[in-house]
Amino acid sequence: MTHDDILYGKLKLWQPDEGPRVNMDTVLLAAYVRLKPRRESSFIELGAATGAVSLMLALRFPKNFRVLGLEIQPELEELAQRNRAESGLGERVSFRRMDFREYRSLPAGAFDGVVVNPPYEEEGRGRKSPSEAVSIARQSACCTLRDVVEAASWLLKNRGKFFTVCRADRMAEFLALSVDKKLEPKRLRPVYPKTGGKASLFLAEALKGGGVGLTVEPPLFVHGVTGGYTPELLQAYELEGLRFGI
Looking at the DSSP assignment, which residues form a beta bridge with residue 156? Predict the structure, then answer.
């Protein structure tokens, strides 16, 4: 287990040596969330792992924001509870050990926002990880992308927002599933490792009950021409999060 600085030391997290750990995708997802100012918001995170996204959001939005993180793996949920207690954000963040495929046990339309970093691989595709924790987090051992979208649709209020980060080659699947479940994609930002290559990820925001109209935002490049991180990527590690068009 390690105790790591996140967001340039603004947050410290206990994380397992093996299993899901904070990475660039985690930070980008938390940085992509937008909220209307001066409005109370209640969020839920599906598959919270050690609580990183939920805690980063609580840091980013210090007023009128509450978030509940659901995590199926006992050892990760215990770390999330420890991180919550040590972060000083416990009044606005909570975690629950729960399989979010049982979303119907929660009230329908109870949340203003859903945030999730879903498994990237469907089970049976790619090489199976020897780590059960990684397999659950990354290879759909406990849920599919369809499960994620269906849960989000059930949990969101009308006009509630769904935020996610997905692998680029699953974009068509994500868009089709979201529209089918009345989650209209509104913003999409492709993420490229470097200029001249293929997109590796995309960030997305969908609106429950929203009208048709998708804004494809400027690409976010991780590395610039000199090989260093771009200002766009580094902006994600600040509390302000990502801004449109930079």
Answer: 111
- pLDDT the model gives residue 38: 73
At CA 61, angle to CA 110 and CA 19, rounded to 5? 80
Mean pLDDT of the chain: 91
What is the Cα Rg of the chain in Å? 17
Residue 38 makes CB contacts below 8 A (sequence gap 6+) with: 64
Q: What pLDDT sits at residue 119?
A: 87
What's the sign of the alpha-carbon dihedral 154, 215, 228, 240? negative
Identify the top-confidence range among 63-67, 182-186, 224-228: 182-186
**What global pTM score does this model have?**
0.91
Q: Residue 20: beta bridge partners? A: none
- Is residue 239 classed exposed, middle or buried when 0-12, 13-18 and 19+ CB atoms within 10 A define those classes? middle
Length of the chain: 246
Q: How far is CA 192 from CA 23, 170, 218, 226, in A?
A: 15, 15, 11, 15
Q: How is the chain split among helix, strand and coil, in percent rounded to 5?
A: 30, 30, 40
Reported as a single tens digit per residue, the pLDDT across 98-108 is 999 999 999 99
